[in-house]
Structures are given as structure tokens and as C-alpha cells.
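User: what does the whole thing look like in 3D?
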Amino acid sequence: MKAILSVIGKDKVGIIAKVSGYLQGIGANIEDISQTILQDYFAMIMLVDISRAEIKLDRITESLEKMGKEIGVSIRLQHEDVFHAMHKI
Amino acid sequence: MLSNKEIIETIDMLDNQNLDVRTITLSLSLLDCVGGGAEATCERVYDRIARRAENLVRVGGEIEREYGVPIVNKRVSVTPASLIGASFAAYDKNIYFKLAKTLDKAAKRVGIDFIGGFSALVHKGITEYEDAFLNALPQSIAETDLVCASVNAASTKSGVNMDAVVRLGKTVKELSRLTADRGSIGCAKFVVFANSVEDNPFMAGAYCGIGEGGATVNVGVSGPGVVKAAIEKYKNADLAQLAEVIKRTAFKITRLGQLVCETAAKRLNAGAGVIDLSLAPTPKAGDSVARILEEMGLESVGAHGTTACLALLNDAVKKGGLMAARECGGLSGAFIPVSEDEGMIAAVKRGALTIEKLEAMTCVCSVGLDMVAIPGDTPAETVSAIIADELAIGVVNNKTTAARLIPAHGLKEGAVLEFGGLLGSAPVMPVNRFSPAKFILRGGRIPAPIHSLRN
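Assistant: Here's the predicted 3D structure for the full assembly of 544 residues, as C-alpha cells:
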């Protein structure tokens, strides 16, 4: 299963390292990564394959949200179907 | 491939514009639970709901987490209870009260927010068992927590059953009195319909129609905040352009509802039913239908022009949603409940929105006079008359209309009823003080309009 991971917040040193380190640890594969700056905000978006991850999406989401809180950014992991449904005909 | 802009747009809708799915409602047929006596029937009803809806809340929660989209309510709707108790009503006077208690117990067991279907269809006549049902309704709703009731008292094919409407005015008053200590909340769980629909996912009027399948997931989408945010970017657009913006937004919201519907249906081993294209507000700031109308250019909702403005909004939401959903149904139109919409509440408080204007607005949207608090001393005949007006609009215009009126026990115009949660708070609105009693008490039936003869 593929999911979209988004990190939105004030730009800080080491966000990508921290998130990708965590993903590597659970066996998730980053297939694409991009980042943009929205006004003062940093938005990083990753396409992640979690089909071979050792833990379930639920738990990954929980850990990422916790990590986001620690760094002071918002981290979400959502099934990619949500975005395809809303934006692709 | 998805663009960053698309991904961020969705996240912005979720974070800042209150995008959610308002309800996943599992519609369950209970007809085959009837038999072997009243007690045995109640047991089978309980078992059916407890077994079939066992995973509804868990599955809803899983979908919320996987998709990152809140699903505000998980509900169950069942076959109209008047039919389930029909064969026992003649010798068991308490059958309907027992059924209500059974539904409440089952709803609590599976952890859902509400259960709908304590309902009867009396648009052409009231049978003996429906008479027993109507007698039991006030106590049944007052003494349960999660059960919602509805009565269909009119249809385009049959006209308005005024004998029923006379009784239902008294039912509303009785519900108000019985739940006076809780802000007359019983009235918030009871709605009177014209042309009620069989696949409605929204409360208080959801029930599983007899033409429905055994188990079906119907979904109600939401998103007034998203629509408002979309049109905020078009300050100088003309109305045709605004309609286009609303259509595009409604499409996206509805696609999300469709995805949730299909996923939930699959995991619950149920049929994927309809998407109800209603814009459903909540009392939260930024989740109001009234504020959309004001963003379109009204100083306050209730001003002259409100009906036209709402007509445009309602139509554009449907046109946008239609292509996004595999199947549309339910009520499908903007909801304009007073207590559940922060902008409506504000408009009533500032004196901009009256019950007469609300009635006009119901001609162009679903669903009717919804969550409208009126003075507690309003006579039952006047309550019936307000219901009759609303049903007449539905019957003549071949659409669903409804009345969910709350005579605020012991309160007068200007007071505020506080319900809390999604039900919000309702300022008590004045009603016309001239009496319709003689007209209402004639009883009988207002015949079906000429255009009901379409065959």
C-alpha cells in the first residue's frame, strides 16, 4: 500500500533526516520526495510504500504524529487513495 | 501523478476548513426478525443489530486513521419500527416502547452515535398498529438516549394526512414536556416528513425503507467550510462563475464520501449505498451553510435574496456531487438547521432570520424547518399548522420536506436552548400569534396535487 506523508510547519534543521530515518527503521520505502515553501511554511511531501513495513499504518501514523509534536511540525500519513479520489477523474 | 498543490489543497481542507465525512450509516432490514411473539422479536432485533453493526465503529475509526479524514458519526438505520411491532400491537400495548428500548440497548452495545428507524409511514392513513405506535412515541423517545423517530405524514402521491398532522402537533408538544428538564431535547430526535426517503443517512429521519437491501452503507458528506473557503477566492466573480467553483468543490468532497462509502461497505460486508450530497453544517465556527450565503454577498442570511442565493448553492452542490458519486440519494441538498449552524444562530439573534424566511428557503433546498425552537406556549394546533405548511411545500413541489420543531418548554421568544455537541443551541423564534386551529382541526386529508397523476 502506498501512502502520502506530508510534513507541514516552520522549516527546521533535520526534519527529513528524522522522518526518513524512522521510515527506514520500519521497512517503508520512500518512492518520491519533494518540498515547497508556502509563505513561511515548509511543506515536504513523500510518496511512501508501506506494504513491506513491519507495523500497521495506524501505528505508523501514531508514531509520526508524536514525532511531529516533538519537532513542532504537523506530520500526516494518509492512504494515497484519498488524494486520487479527490483530484483525479 | 499527484501534484504538491493537490495534496496541500486536501490537507488545507482537513486542517483549516473542517472537511469531514458527516456520517456512515449502516442501513439494516429487520423485517425477517419478526415472529414468535413480542419478546422473541425484540431479542432477534437486538441480536441482528448487535451482530451486524458490531464492527461499524471500529471500521469507521480505521478508515478515519488510514485516510486521515474525520468521520463524525457512525449510525444505524433500521426498518420502520411500526412495521416490526405491527403483528403484536393488538395484544401487547407496550410493544413499541419495548422495541424502542431494544433499539437503544443495541445502539449502546455497538457504540454508535444514533439509531434511526423508530418510524411510521402514515401519509395516507393510520392503521391500528400505527395508532399504537404514535401513542407510544413520546415516551419511547423521552426514555431512550440514542433512538431517533420519524413519521411520514404526506406524499406527492397521496397528499397531506391532516389527521396525522393534528396528532403530530400534540406529539411534538408532549415530547417537549416530557424532556423539559433536558432542554426539550426529545423534539430534536423526532422529525415529520413529506416524501421521506428510504436511504437517508442523516438523523433524525434515517430509516431502512422496505425496498432497501439487507445491509447497506449510506454516507452523508459535509464540507460547508470547504465551499466557503473556495468562493472566498472569487470576490468579484459573477454568479455563474461562483456556481462553477461550488460544483468543482462539491465534486472533490463527494469523491471522498464515495471512497469512504466503498471502503466501509467492503469491510462491513454490506452493500455500497448512496452518497447524500447534503452540505451539513455543525455549530463550530467555519462549518456553516449560512456563512457561505453571506460570503456570496448577503449582509446576513435571512436578507431578501437569501432564497435565490440558496437555490444556486443547492443546485451547484448537486451538479458537482452527481458525477462524483456512483449513486446519489438520501436528502441531497444543503441543510439549514438553525441550532446546528453558527451563522444561522447569529442571524436569528440579530433579527435577520425569521421562521417565514426559513420556510421560503426550504422550497429550494433540503430539507425543511430543522431544529427550530419556538416558544413553549405555542398551541399544538399552531405546531401542526407549521408542520402542515412545510409538508404542503414538499407535496406540491415533489420534494422531501420535513419539520423538526422544538417548543422550548417554559421559555419565551428570545431565550436560548442549549443542547451542546452537534445539536448546538437554538434561539427561541417568534411564531405568528393568529390561530389556525379551526382549519387544522377539520382533519381529513389534503388531496394529492394534480401533477401527482403522471402515469
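In plain terms: The two ends of chain A are 21 Å apart (CA to CA). Residues 2-87 of chain A form a domain with the Alpha-Beta Plaits fold (CATH 3.30.70.260).
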